[in-house]
Structures are given as C-alpha cells and as structure tokens.
C-alpha cells in the first residue's frame, strides 16, 4: 500500500531515519523541521497521513494538530516521548487520531498508518442510512448530516467510529472491539483513544454533550448508540 | 522506663494540684479548728467562771449539798462539774470524776491559778476542762465540757477537705492531660506532615497561618528544610529522566535505521548479516533498558498518570501471557505457558493499565527464565486472605529465593546471591522493581514465596471491581478515567 506521509519532526537524524524506514515500507515521505513549515507543506500538497512530533520548537505539536484540524480531516498520528502523561490525551483532544511512543518500531508505525488509511470496513450487515435525533448517517457516501441537509464535519476516524456504533444500534461495543475495528489494535490498545474520540464525537452529534442522548457510556462495558 | 513528655506534663499538673490542695486544705482546717476551739474555750471559761461564782455564793451561804448543787449547775448542759472543797472531791456524774481531770492542770489550779486544758479521754472523747480556784471559800471548781460535737464538725470538715483535695488533684491531672495534648498538638501536625513527606508527598508543608505564634520560627525552618529536600529530589529525578529522555532520540534513529538495514539483510554478505543480527538484538535490549529506566525515574518523580481500564482478569492474564511471550527479549523453546483459571474468578473484573500489566507478566516470565529454569505454572485464583482481591501466581522451578532476600529482590539493581552470572538475556536489574512499581500504581501488590515444587512463586494481588451493572447506561463517568 502506498500513500503520502508528512513527517513533522525537529530532530534531523530522527527525521532522516523515519524517512528511510517509511520509504522502505513503500510510502512517499515529505518532512518538515517545524510546525510552521509543516503547515506550509500541507497546504502545498495535502498528504494522506500527517505524523507530528509533540515537542517542537516554536509552534508545538498540539497547536500544529489544531491548525491542521481547522482545515482538514486528514488522519494525524502524534509522536510522543511518553505514553502515560496527559500529553497523549491532550494530543488526541487537539485532533490527533492515534499516537506512537518514542522509540517506536517503524513496522509498528507503518501498521498504524495502514490502519488509518484503510477504508471503513464493510460491516457484516450494511447498516444503510441511520437516523438518530435530527442527524442522518449515510455510511456509503461517508456523510453525516442534519435532517435539514446541513453537513456535520467529522474526521475519518470519528466517522468510522460512528459507523461501527451505528452498525449495531442499541448493542454495547467494548473498548477492545472498537479499538480493533476502528484502529486495528489488539487487546493491548489504549482505551483512551476510544474515550477521547467518543468525547469528540459527542460534541458534534449531541445537543448537550454533557448529557448524551445517543452515544451512551455503559459503565464497565463500553459504548452503544441509541437512535 | 522513660516517661513521655505528655506523661510528665500530666504528672507535674497532678503533683501541683496535690500540693496545692494539701496546703489549702491544711490551712483551712487548722484555721477553722483554731477559730472554733478558741470560741468554744472562751464560752467555756465564761460558763466556768459564772458557775464558780455560783458555787462560791452557795458555799458562803453555808449549804452543804454540793452534789445537788453540781447536778443543778450541770442540768441541761453537756458539761460536768467537779468541786474540790477542803481536800474533798464532789462530782455530778459517774463518767466525769476528779480522776479524769489531768493531773498537771489540777496541780496548777490547786496552787491558786485558773487554767484550762483540752485533752482526749481514754475513751477517745475530746473534752476541755476549766479549773477555777475559789480561794475565799478554799475550794476549787472544775468544769469539764464535752467537745465531741466540735470534734465531729472538724472530722466532717477534714473529710470534706480531703475529698475536695482528691477532686482537685484529679482535675489537675485531667488539666495536665488536656494541656499536654493541647501543647503537643502542633507536634502531631508536624509528625503527620513528616510522615506524608516520607511517604512521598513532597508538596506537604506546615501551614504558617495556622501555626502557633510561638512555633513560627520552627514552622519556617521546617518548611525550608522540606523545600530543600524537595528541590534535591526533584533535581535528581529530573536528571534521571533527562538522561533517559535524551537517550530516546538517538535510540529512535537507531531503531528506524536498523529496520531499514534489516529489511535489506538478504543483500548483505554473511559476516555483515551476523553483525547486523548482534547489533539488532542488543539494540532491542538497550531500548528495553532505557524504557525501564525511564519508567522507573518517572515513578520516582511521582509523575505517573495512571489510566486504569476495567477488564476481565482471566482474559487479561491470558492475553498478557500470550502477547507478553512474544515481547520477551529471549525465551526458551515452546510456546507461552498455560494459564490455569480458578472457576470462581472467571467473571471477576479488575482495574488495570493493560500495557503495564503485560510488562509485569513479561518481567516475571523473564525472571523465571533467567533465574528459575522457566515458568512452570501460571494461575489466577481468589486471594484466600481477602475476598475482594484476586491473585495471579507465577511459579518457576529454580532454586527459589532465600526468605531473607524476599523483599530485597524488588529493589532496583538488586542481584540475588544465587545469580552471579551475566549471560545472554540478563535483564536491566530493574525488572522486579518495575513489577512492584507497576503493581503499586495499579493498587495491587506483589510478593514472593516458595512454590510447592521448591522454586520461587511470585504472587500478584489486585483489588476486584464490583460486577458491572448492565443497565447503568447514560452515566457520564468514563469507566476508565481513574
């Protein structure tokens, strides 16, 4: 599988080695040494995936994510030095779809990229159009819109998460199931990915995200969608 | 035995109250006694002189019925009269006779001087006798007054004072206790603060606002001491963390470059391929070590943001063993060890960080491989000593761990006496320390004992979560955010 990847990383050596490793996995790589440069390159030629280091001089990785998100739904992977700090959650909240921890294995990174680039998996039973609240989800067309026709913008990952939930309305899906289906993670995937994406999704589909009516948490079990 | 400061303060207060009540009681007693006796004596003297006058008039009148006279005088009083006339003695009662009058007094009076004396009869009754010489008729009149009512009053007074003294002493002790706990209270605050600091809460400080004004200087220097301590610890932790952090960037480069080389390994001559193999293996070991160090320094700096997820414990252990087996730096032949799950715990749930738990299992399995001849069994079962905890047991068939070393094996860089070798796959020396650290942040624990086969048995315990309520929908608590 090929695709274009934008790497934003200030350490020249890491940048070069990542470039080499990703290129040998078959990707086309462009790299930027700062957030500002990265945004320019993105505007020039939008990549399929953006890989952003959180610790950048000047504009940091979070700001870079937010800036990208304002104009694009491109999958973003953040590169962080630590997995158990607030950095990960903050990065996901800034709009990232996934993260990898330094030092990472290039094969693993390639697997993450593949998972994000994968098209929404065809559900066993085609969910067809699903209406909940005043929203209409059209999985085939990749569209989520209000009944009045106004489109709701969400990232590819958010959309896929919503589709997975919509494929079995009223049925609880565990974090592990969602991690597997949306991100391609095994049992040891990070549940925070699901939690943050659900939170982000709620701000887009719920009238009051603090009192969700459609995307519900089932404590100790997972999440479910109630039309 | 050394008395505590509290006990000493209490004792001083008690002793003070005792001395004070003895002094005050004694003073009151003797003052009252003196006052009552003086009054009684003067009344008795007055009475005696009046009676003596009467006797004189009677004798001068030539009457001889002295006993009748004396009886008349005594009638209606608690006094008894004794008359000595021309060396003959007359008395009015059977109990009080001339013999009961003290000898010295009698002599003084017979010599012509009026006198009085208080004394106690052999029966124990207090009496006062007034002796009045009546020279004109050559007689001596003695009036003996019973003082038992006064005696009784003084006894009651003494008792009352004694009881009051006792109460005062007890109150003194109570006050002493109160004062000592009160004055030691700032110390208790300090002790709590010191305990918290020792327990790792380095942000603990004494509240200068709330501190006793007398202890202001102490509070300031205590806080200054903790500031210094905290700064040193943080500096050290920062150094550790910086070092491991700085190592990550080159490691990332090395790992990525290594993967490119490994992808092309078939194009390399055999010697280079072998060198690449060595490089790759040690690079992965090095990565693990840096990872371990970083994990450890983070735990020390207290900057661990733990994310606990609710998972089924038997699934967790099974998956951790399977996946972890593949993550081991090196492992023996065969597949991952079997996990034996007790039927009772099959549906039990625990709150863990799955990645950390997997590392715990990997470290224990690696430890068993390095020092214990490999894992012989992994079991999940209820904790026999606490119904709300679950145990995960990892047994090996090695020589076991000496009871004296059983807590030390969880220390950093501890290498047991039985393991001098540093062969292939030797760990970073942090493996078991990290097991303890990971279990700690997940509210669990780890200990080591002997396995039935004589090897080492590592026992992990984790608190069990209540069964999820399937209907608990729409509650906004994000199940895992701890």
List key phrases describing it:
heterodimer, A: 227 residues, Rossmann fold, Arc Repressor Mutant, subunit A, 2 domains, three-stranded antiparallel sheet, 40% helix, B: alpha+beta, Beta-Lactamase, Helix Hairpins, Heat Shock Protein 90, 3 domains, seven-stranded mixed sheet, 9 helices, disordered C terminus
Description:
The complex is a heterodimer of chains A (227) and B (482). Chain A has 227 residues and is α/β, with parallel strands linked by helices. Chain A has helices spanning 12-24, 35-44, 61-71, 86-93, 106-117, 156-167, 175-183, 191-205; strands spanning 4-8, 28-32, 49-53, 76-80, 98-101, 130-132, 135-138, 143-146, 215-218, 222-225. In chain A, helix 2 runs parallel beside helix 3, helix 6 (156-167) packs across helix 8 (191-205) and helix 7 (175-183) packs across helix 8 (191-205). The model of chain A has no long low-confidence stretch (mean pLDDT 86). In chain B, strand 9 (375-382) and strand 10 (389-396) form a beta hairpin. Chain B is of the alpha+beta class and 482 residues long. Helix content of chain B is 51%, strand content 16%. In chain B, strands 6, 7, 8, 9, 10, 11 and 12 form a 7-stranded mixed beta sheet that branches. Chain B has a 5-stranded antiparallel beta sheet with strand order 2-1-5-4-3, sandwiched between helices. Chain A binds chain B through residues 11, 13-14, 16-18, 20-21, 24, 81-86, 102-107, 175, 186-188, 190-192, 195, 199, 210-212, 216-221, 224, and chain B through 245, 248-257, 259-260, 263-264, 287, 290, 294, 298, 303-307, 309-310, 315, 319, 323, 349, 353-355, 358, 465, 468-470, 472-481.
């Amino acid at each position: 599988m090929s695709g274009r990847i934008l790497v934003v990383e200030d350490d020249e050596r890491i940048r070069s080695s990542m470039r080499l490793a990703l290129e040998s996995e078959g990707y086309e790589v462009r790299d930027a040494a700062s957030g500002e440069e990265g945004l320019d390159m993105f505007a020039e030629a939008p990549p399929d995936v953006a890989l952003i280091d959180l610790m950048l001089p000047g504009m940091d990785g979070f700001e870079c994510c937010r800036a990208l998100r304002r104009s694009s739904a491109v999958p973003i992977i953040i590169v962080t030095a630590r997995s158990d700090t607030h950095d990960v959650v903050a990065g996901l909240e800034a709009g990232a779809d996934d993260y990898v921890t330094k030092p990472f294995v290039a094969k693993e990174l390639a697997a993450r990229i593949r998972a994000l680039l994968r098209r929404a998996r065809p559900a066993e039973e085609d969910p067809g159009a699903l209406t909940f609240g005043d929203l209409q989800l059209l999985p085939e067309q990749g569209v989520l819109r209000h009944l009045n026709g106004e489109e709701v913008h969400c990232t590819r990952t958010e959309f896929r998460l919503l589709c997975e939930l919509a494929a079995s309305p009223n049925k609880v899906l565990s974090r592990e199931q969602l991690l597997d289906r949306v991100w391609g993670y095994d049992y040891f995937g990070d549940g925070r990915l699901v939690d943050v994406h659900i939170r982000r999704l709620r701000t887009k589909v719920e009238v009051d995200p603090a009192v969700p009516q459609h995307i519900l948490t089932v404590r100790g079990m997972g999440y479910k969608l109630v039309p | 035995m050394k008395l505590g400061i509290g006990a000493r303060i209490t004792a001083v207060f008690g002793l003070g109250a005792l001395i004070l009540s003895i002094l005050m009681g004694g003073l009151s007693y003797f003052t009252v006694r003196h006052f009552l006796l003086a009054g009684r004596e003067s009344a008795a003297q007055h009475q005696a002189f009046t009676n003596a006058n009467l006797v004189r008039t009677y004798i001068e009148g030539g009457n001889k019925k002295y006993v009748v006279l004396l009886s008349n005088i005594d009638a209606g009083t608690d006094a008894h009269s004794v008359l000595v006339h021309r060396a003959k003695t007359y008395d009015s009662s059977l109990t009080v006779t001339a013999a009961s009058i003290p000898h010295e007094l009698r002599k003084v009076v017979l010599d012509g001087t009026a006198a009085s004396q208080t004394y106690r009869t052999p029966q124990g009754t207090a009496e006062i006798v007034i002796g009045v010489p009546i020279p004109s008729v050559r007689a001596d009149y003695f009036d003996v007054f019973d003082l038992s009512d006064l005696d009784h009053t003084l006894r009651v007074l003494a008792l009352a004072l004694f009881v009051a003294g006792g109460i005062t002493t007890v109150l003194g002790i109570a006050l002493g206790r109160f004062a000592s706990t009160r004055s030691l209270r700032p110390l208790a605050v300090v002790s709590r603060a010191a305990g918290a600091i020792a327990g790792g809460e380095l942000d603990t400080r004494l509240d200068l606002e709330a501190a006793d004004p007398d202890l202001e200087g102490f509070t300031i220097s205590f806080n200054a001491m903790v500031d210094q301590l905290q700064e040193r610890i943080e500096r050290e932790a920062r150094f550790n963390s910086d070092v491991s952090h700085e190592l990550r960037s080159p490691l990332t480069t090395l790992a990525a470059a290594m993967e490119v080389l490994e992808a092309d390994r078939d194009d390399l001559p055999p010697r280079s391929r072998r060198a690449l193999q060595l490089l790759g293996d040690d690079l992965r070991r090095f990565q693990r070590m840096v990872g371990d160090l970083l994990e450890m320094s983070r735990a020390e700096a207290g900057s661990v943001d733990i994310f606990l997820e609710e998972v089924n414990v038997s699934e967790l252990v099974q998956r951790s063993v399977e996946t972890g087996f593949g993550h081991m730096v090196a492992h023996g032949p065969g597949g991952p060890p079997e996990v034996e799950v007790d039927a009772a715990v099959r549906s039990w749930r625990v709150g863990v960080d799955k990645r950390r738990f997997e590392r715990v299992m990997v470290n224990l399995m690696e430890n068993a491989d390095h020092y214990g001849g490999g894992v012989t069994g992994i079991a999940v079962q209820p904790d026999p000593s606490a119904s709300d905890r679950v145990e995960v047991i990892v047994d090996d068939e090695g020589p076991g761990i000496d009871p004296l070393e059983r807590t030390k094996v969880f220390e950093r860089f501890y290498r047991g006496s039985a393991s001098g070798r540093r062969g292939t796959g030797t760990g970073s020396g942090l493996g078991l320390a990290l097991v303890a650290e990971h279990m700690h942040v997940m509210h669990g624990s780890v200990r080591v004992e002997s396995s039935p086969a004589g090897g080492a048995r590592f026992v992990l315990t984790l608190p069990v979560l209540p069964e999820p309520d399937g209907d608990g929908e729409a509650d906004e608590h994000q199940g895992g955010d701890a």
